[in-house]
Amino acid sequence: MGGPVMCVQKTPTLSFVNAYFFQTLQGYMHYKYRKIKRILFEDLPDTIVELGPGVGSNLRYFNPGTTLLAVEPNEGMHSLLKKNSEKYSIHTKLMNLSAEKLPFPDSSVDAVVCSLVLCTVEKPDQVLKEIKRVLRVGGRLIFLEHVAAKQGSWIERIQRIVFRPWLWFFEGCHLNRDTDQTLRNADFSSLKIESLTLPTIFLPIRPHIFGTAIK
């Protein structure tokens, strides 16, 4: 895996700062991610589980009327997530829970969306295990994640330099997790991963992967 195991204390003030930071970035994030997300989310069912939706950056890509089962443990995001859900006509059922233990029965979910989340969860391997548990056979995990840069690259050096302040400010976001390998280790029946270098001003998160895993 990526960086050292560290416990980052979330504070209400920092959580609200992050929420409004991401809300301010909605237009920029849409501009940067729109082509990938339109492809990833073009054929989703009427009910979706999303892990860590934050303030709702993906809502605009879901069909109006979609029921979103939103697993979001960061309370600072909740009010903006509700507001944005109304804006995009998404019926959001908010769950203040951790992704490491999902509140759904075995084999009960058709689709799980996980976007820029596996960098932040405490145990990404456990999260993927839970996703596999709740997905029906043939159910899909749709993912988009920033990942560790290639060893020795200039981006990798930047990731190492800013690792600790980034981890603190973004409440546990690990810049150098090998999420690609974590997904491969999860043993889905089918896994499609594509790599992307995102041309963003946020240099440490330029390396990305995206794709679909099927149970």
TrEMBL record:
CDD domains: AdoMet_MTases
Methyltransferase type domain location: 50-143
UniProt xrefs under SUPFAM superfamilies: S-adenosyl-L-methionine-dependent methyltransferases
A GO MF label: S-adenosylmethionine-dependent methyltransferase activity
Entries under PANTHER family matching the protein: METHYLTRANSFERASE LIKE 7A (PTHR45036:SF1), METHYLTRANSFERASE LIKE 7B (PTHR45036)
Protein known as: Methyltransferase type 11 domain-containing protein
Organism: Leptospira adleri
Organism lineage string: Bacteria, Pseudomonadati, Spirochaetota, Spirochaetia, Leptospirales
